[in-house]
Each structure stands twice: as C-alpha cells, then as structure tokens.
Design brief:
- The structure is a single chain.
- The chain is of the alpha/beta class.
- The chain folds into two domains: about 180 residues, Flavin prenyltransferase-like (Rossmann fold), CATH 3.40.50; about 210 residues, 3-Layer(aba) Sandwich (Rossmann fold), CATH 3.40.50.
- About 35% of the residues lie in helices and about 25% in strands.
- It is built from 14 helices and 21 strands.
- Strands 12-11-8-13-16-17-19-20 form an eight-stranded mixed β-sheet, sandwiched between helices. Strands 2-1-3-4-5 form a five-stranded parallel β-sheet, with helices on both faces.
- The two termini are about 20 Å apart.
- Bound molecules: cytidine-5'-triphosphate.
- The site of cytidine-5'-triphosphate has 14 residues, from helix 12 and strand 16.
C-alpha cells in the first residue's frame, strides 16, 4: 500500500508538529517529498525535513540543481497524494484564486493527485468569512479540507484553529492512501437532504436535515474512485466536485429521480430525510387567513417509501438505509433493515448531543443483515462517511470474492 506523499509545508507555527508527521509517514514506509514555502523555512530548517524523510527538500521554483526535469511538474506528477500542513490563510487564498507564485502553489496547480489541506491558524482568522469562502471554493473544486481541532492556540486564544495532533494527521494520511481508488469502479446512487411538501405556492412542510451526511458520503465516494450520482432535496450546500447532482424538491420527485438512475447503480445509499406524508391537496393560490379563521386542518396522505420500493427490486445492488430515531434505536433500525430488504442500516439517535440533524458531527451504529453491529465514535460527518463506505466496501468485497 505505501505510496508517495508530497507534503507542502507553510509558514504557520504548527509547522513543528508537521516535523513529526513527516517522520511518522516515513516510519510507515511512505515516500515523503517535502516542499516548503519561504515562510516555513524561517520557522524550521529544510535540513530537518531532509534528514527525517531521507529526501531532498524543495523550496525554490527556480532551481538549477535538478538536471533533466522541471521540479514543479515532476513533483506534481509523481505524487499519489498532496498534503498541505499547516495550510495558512495565505496559501488557502492563493490556491482559491488559482495563483502559482512559488513552488508549492505551482505544484498544486499542476498535480492530478488528490489535494488535502489541514488549515491551522488563529481562531479569528479561521472564522474570517473570506477564509471560509476560500475553503468553500476549494471544496467545490474537489480539494479535501480536514477541519482544525479546537483548543488553546499558539497565540493564547482558545478556539478552532489547531492542527490536529501529529499522530492523527499521520494516520489520516495513511488511511487516505489506503482508500485511494478503493471504491472504483463502483457506481453510487446517494440521496441527501430533506424533501419539501408544498401546501400552497409559498408554504411547505419539511424537516431540519442539512444534507451534510449525504453530501459527505457523495464527496468521499468520489474521492475514493466511485462514480457518484447524488439526488438532493433543497440544501444550502455547494455541489460536491466530480459528482452528478440532481436537485429535487418533493418526495415524489426524489422517487422518480432515484428510480430513473437505479439501473446504472451498484450501491444505493439513502441518507435523505424523506417526508412520509404530504398534503392531500396543494392549493393553487396562497391560503388566506381571511378564508380560514382560527384553525385550519390539513389532510395528509402517505408518500411513496422510496427505500422500500428499491428493496423490493434491488437485484445484486447493495442497499443502505438510514434510521434516525428518538427511541428504541436498535430495535427500530433492525426492523427497518428487515422490512425494507436492506443490506445495511446506519442508525443514529437524533436526540443525542452532536448527532443527527443540522450538526457537523454524527455518532452512528452500522447494522448489517448478517446481524453484525458496529458502534462508531462521534466524529465529523466527513469521517463518518469514510467509515460507512469502509463498511460498504467490506460487504461488497465479501460478496464478490
Ligand atoms: N425513506 C424513504 N422514503 C420515505 C421515507 C423514508 O426512502 N418515504 C428512507 C430514508 O431515506 C431512510 C430510511 O427510509 O434511509 C428510514 O427513514 P425513516 O423515516 O427514519 O423511517 P420510516 O421507514 O419512514 O419509518 P418511521 O417514520 O415510522 O420511523
């Protein structure tokens, strides 16, 4: 598995942790090429990285020391993964603008390898809307961003902005290398977000799903070599890069889009929070208080159960459902797994802190149809997405061995 990592080091104080990351990667047999920005060399000497990696360290785009190659092109082509740690606000801004004014930024422009950023900076800098908007822009181009940790920062302030501890960064990179292309050539059909069930032209019934879990699954499946179609209810999220996105509003539209794309899918993951009922009648005109007085009664009818419909005709597909519950979590999840003919169900208690709707984290249990249950720790939805996909890969492999 070991591969080749290009480690881009910028001039943030967290650079001292990246020294341990470089040596940790080398100990795992990974070939580490280091490119330092000029600012980074003022904090740590290139010789430190050179000694720990056993490779020459690159700092200058205009070098005469490498005969027979243009360093930014050679480095860009040879890397399996480009990791930038710490990623400073300055480098994030330059990459978001497409600038290439030093060796690191030109390597990133020239590479076809996945690029992962570990932002680390003062909390106010990290929360600055310009920095956040640059990160969103980079995400929309397919860059992977690993959220900084919270805690005491070098400046004495407390907040989000710390580079995670070196062993976490190292194991993240090792896992990412192991997962490279591990889902190719699987075709994923993923649903995300809420549905809206209109009452009249200006009002609807919905739920607080943000779509984050489904979008994280779509992005992760794409990063790991899968071919992804994402059917999404209304969300505020930017479209994930490299994913075919189909926007829908109601449960019935979601059902039609899913059924249309079902034939060209191997794995179906239904992370959407679909409304079970819709108003029996959608008023053509806005409902007026003057016509209803103090109370109004809505008659509701059942929406199609998309997951159950797929379950009944899934063929060789691997079908993954979600169960968001407020009580009897495992009993309800197991019942849904059975009733809807699923291969796997991802269960979470939406009343638990940090879990469920409209938060950045989740804590889930994965139940498979052989009765096996895997309890996972609380983690960012991006990380939980990778764990769910690891479970999918395992079932797919065991079935196709
Ligand atoms: N689901 C679906 N179509 C629906 C309702 C739900 O495809 N009309 C899917 C969801 O995407 C999710 C799973 O079914 O993957 C579980 O949804 P949930 O609403 O929690 O369960 P239900 O089966 O609707 O049962 P209940 O509402 O009684 O808990």
């Amino acid at each position: 598995m070991p591969g080749k990592v290009l480690l881009g080091v910028c001039g943030g104080i967290a650079v001292y942790k990246v020294v341990s990351v470089a040596s940790g990667l080398r100990r795992q047999g990974i070939d580490v090429q280091v490119v330092m920005t000029e600012a980074a060399t003022r904090l740590v000497a290139p010789l430190t990285f050179q000694t720990l990696t056993g490779n020459r360290v690159y700092t200058d785009i205009f070098t005469t020391e490498q005969p027979g190659g243009v360093p930014h092109i050679t480095l860009a082509q040879e890397a399996d993964l480009v990791v930038i740690a710490p990623a400073t606000a300055n480098v994030i801004g330059k990459l978001a603008a497409g600038l290439g004014d030093d060796l690191l930024t030109t390597v990133v422009l020239a590479t076809k390898a996945p690029v992962v950023l570990f932002p680390a900076m003062n909390v106010n800098m990290f929360q600055n809307p310009v920095v956040q908007s640059n990160l969103d822009r980079l995400r929309s181009f397919g860059f992977e961003i690993v959220a900084p940790a919270s805690g005491e920062l070098a400046c004495g302030q407390v907040g989000q902005g710390r580079l995670p501890e070196p062993e976490h960064v190292t194991s993240w990179i090792v896992d990412r290398l192991a997962r490279r292309q591990d889902l190719a050539p699987l075709r994923f059909l993923i649903t995300a977000g809420p549905t809206r069930e209109h009452i009249d032209p200006v009002r609807f019934l919905s739920n607080p799903s943000s779509g984050r879990m489904g979008y994280a699954l779509a992005a992760a499946a794409h990063h790991r070599g899968g071919n992804v179609t994402l059917v999404s209810g209304p969300t505020e999220l930017p479209p994930p890069a490299g994913v075919k996105l189909i926007n829908v509003t109601s449960a019935r539209q979601m059902r039609d889009a899913v059924m249309e794309h079902l034939p060209e899918s191997d794995v179906v993951i239904k992370a959407a929070a679909v409304a079970d009922y819709r108003p029996a009648q959608v008023e053509a005109q806005k409902i007026k208080k003057s016509e209803h007085g103090e109370t109004i009664t809505l008659e509701m009818v059942r929406n199609p159960d998309i997951l159950a419909e797929i379950g009944a005709q899934k063929g060789q597909r691997l079908l993954v459902g979600f169960a968001a519950e407020t009580r009897n979590l495992m009993e309800n999840a197991a019942a849904k797994l059975q009733a809807k003919h699923l291969d796997m169900i991802v269960a979470n208690d939406v009343r638990e802190a940090g879990s469920g709707f409209a938060v950045a984290t989740n804590r889930v249990r994965i139940l498979t149809n052989d009765g096996h249950c895997q309890e996972l720790p609380l983690g960012p939805k991006e990380q939980v997405a990778d764990w769910i996909l690891d479970a999918v890969r395992k079932v797919w492999q065991s079935r196709n061995d």
